[in-house]
Amino acid sequence: MLTLFFFLLAVTLLVAVHEYGHYRVAVACGVRVERFSIGFGPVIYRWRPRRPRPGQDTEFVISALPLGGYVRMLDESMEPVPESLQAQAFHRQPLGRRALIVVAGPVANLLLAWLLLAGLLWIGQNQWRAQLASPVPGSLMAQAGLNSGDEVTAVVADRHEWDVVSYEDLRWYLARSAAQKQQIEMWVKTPGGGQVRRLDLDLSGLKNDLNQAEGWQELGLQGPWSAPVLNRILPNGQAEAMGLRAGDRVLQMDAWMVRDAAHLRQLIRDSVDASGHPQSRRWRLERDGQIEELEVQVRVLDQGERRIGRIDAMVGSEPDTVLVRRQGLDALGHAGTRLLEMSETTGVLMWRMLTGDAPLSHLGGPLTMAEQAGKTAEKGWQAYVMYLVWVSLSLGLLNLLPIPVLDGGHLMCYLYEWIVRRPMSPQWWGFWQRVGIFMVLLLMAIAIGNDLARWWSTS
Fold this sequence. Notes:
Elements: H1 2-28, E1 33-47, E2 59-73, H2 95-123, E3 125-128, H3 140-144, E4 151-157, E5 160-163, H4 167-179, E6 183-189, E7 196-202, H5 213-219, E8 230-233, H6 238-241, E9 249-253, E10 256-257, H7 261-269, E11 280-287, E12 290-297, E13 299-303, E14 306-310, E15 313-315, E16 321-324, H8 328-355, H9 366-379, H10 381-399, H11 407-420, H12 426-458
Antiparallel strand pairs: 1-2, 3-16, 4-5, 4-6, 6-7, 8-15, 9-10, 9-11, 11-12, 13-14
């Protein structure tokens, strides 16, 4: 229920901001706005301002279906307009004003994303350090020479160098570079403040995209470094039966020295023989300052076509964090730079899907959006605000696409009008509107299909 609430809250906020952009610029341009609606369908609540703006008598409504909204302006293409009001009709406005009113919606979403991100940077966030766990064996990072505990300090791609302040920064730069199929350099510092060395990563050969877990596995990133400590023992589970306790720090398993929590989890998963039966292994651990040894046998769990080991315990200490904070204008500048990078990455991904270079499974629909809203809300208000940044940015960019019925489609028609010095004929306008509706419905069908496929694969 909370997932649905936070999803609807996000949609309502972002739609309201989008439509307010249209509304506010329309009023400023002298266009009469008949209705400002949040949602579609039957009206739940309506009101009119006690002191309406000069020349305006806008009805504000909240409708039953909250997945959208609209601003209805006085428009003689939709209904007859009295001669006394024709100067306030939308289609009677100069071309520049009409284009300004249309582009104001997406710009409002982009502006909201910018201000929210700048606010987060100004307030500051405790983020994980970019000190990394053991890479996945055989992965790209493992082949490059990354070791447990290495801390990434900078990423260089296409002659641009970015300082890596946190683990979140690193994930972002890796995802950005992978989307553009770049070769990058990572500068890493060995544990204990040792020497800094360079690792070369060729991300052009990744078979899986980094918006999926398989992509990060292929790359080898397993999260920030965390000590191999048993954080919590589940009641009546295998770890409890084997005599393990919360707070135990695992030092060695048979002949393997345990490097970190990710390495420990991997060893536990692999504690199964070729026939799928659990293997008994000798664990050497530190408990209350004393060294102890235990014979531990895992519980076997079927995972797809393979069987893996489980011990029914939460593994790993809380990773180290750093305070990431920007001051004043620096926060605005950094937020703007990051949004440009995010927009570039989104644009590249859209183009790759259009050209067939990336699968359409990247498209997510309302189920994915709702799931992400719930997950980020559980992590805290800062994660949820970052979710709003992403969705607001995506909504702004999506509406600028040159697809009829979207704002970008209207702008393309105005570009045509500006070039040929006359508006598009009603027949062609109606045809392109139908094409646009078909394209939007097709995109929605693909996105919802992807949602259902993800839900089915995880259920």
